[in-house]
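USER: My hope is that you can spare some time for a protein that puzzles me. I am handing you a single protein, as its sequence and its fold in token form. Walk me, if you will, through where the backbone shape changes along the chain. The protein I mean follows directly.
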Amino acid sequence: MLKLRPAIVVELERADANVDSSVCDRPGGPGEQRLVIELAVDERESPRRNAIADVALVGRAQVGDEVIVNVQALDLGLGSGGFDVVHVNLTRGLDGDSDPSPTQPHVMKLNYTSLQHAVTPVEEGAGGFPALPVGRPVAVLALHGQLAGLAWAFAQSAPGARLGYVQTEGGALPGGHSRTVHMLRERELLAGYLTAGPAFGGEGEAITTAGALHHGLRTLGWDAAVCGPGPGIVGSGSPLGHGGMVALDSAHVALALGCPTLLVARLSAGDQRTRHRGFSHHTLTVLDMLLEPVTVALPAGMRSPVGSDLRAELGAVFAAAKPARKGKARPAPAVERERAIVDRPARIARHDWRRASIDLPGYAASGLPAETMGRGLTEDPLFFGAALAGGSALAELIERPAVGQMEIEDALGGSV
């Protein structure tokens, strides 16, 4: 159930060090407001708590406003959602449009929830079958933290080319929650920003990821697109129950639209969780399940996260997840592991693996976000190197979409 509590706004936090405001506005409309609140649940003194408010949904708050906040994430101590969220501003947030007309938005986002609101989708008016193939490249992200590095490297490799961003499900749904997008748009490293499916609050709203990519690449004239979840990620620690699986859907959409498709690998040298060291199991699962090959870039000059014992590494990842067949005895663990060692590496290695030059010092000096889950660039260069490699490789796909595959052992084994 919703865990809602009344509260009073006691302070407006500044959006960041360079903006003298509690609101991080973005091109195309208001963004997100940071607040400090006190819960008003009983007569005892309530500790101050951090809260966020989506300005487009609930309006701008002022000190003294009475609000209703969703407290569940903060009460659970979630790392990426450790704040309360304003559900409604009782003082000034109840004046939404109530007189619908044919000219007003009429397609619902967050439909059939108490936060449903009407938008005008970018797909509206696009009659007839879509013009296919689109032919322009799409990069698919595993995490929002890869966006800044990819956009910066893309701009370095393809000066003047227009890169757009499509935010999908898998992480935060409100478009205004991303300060990275705000910064990239200010610096003109992103040419536009659309929110697709249940995500909302972009410069344009799309009902589907397919509609967003087609609109951005065909109508808005983007030279390339990057597609992925907003900040944070939904996760259960299981092979299929995490927000990274949205990359599988997004890649299939891009392939179906006839776009050269690049998957940005989630790599890490510093994550304490074994399943995310080297190649994250998120990326390996998607690469294994994709129906068609895609391009994957590795940073040149950095040691492969898989290493020379690729077969053993992948066998260890997939053997435990291989189910027993109905009516047959489950094979001995050693036999099952051998099957995984033979089958899975071939599916992972069928993709178009490419080396890509990266400039970690240049990115470090750019002033763009360089932190993932508390780790900076020096603590986890592999994470940021993968994002930079993705941006460089995406720029290459604009000019050279048909470059041949790298040798599998050269791409995945030893040094790259």
About this structure: Residues 381-399 form the longest helix (19 residues). The mean pLDDT is 81. The first strand starts at residue 4 and ends at 12.
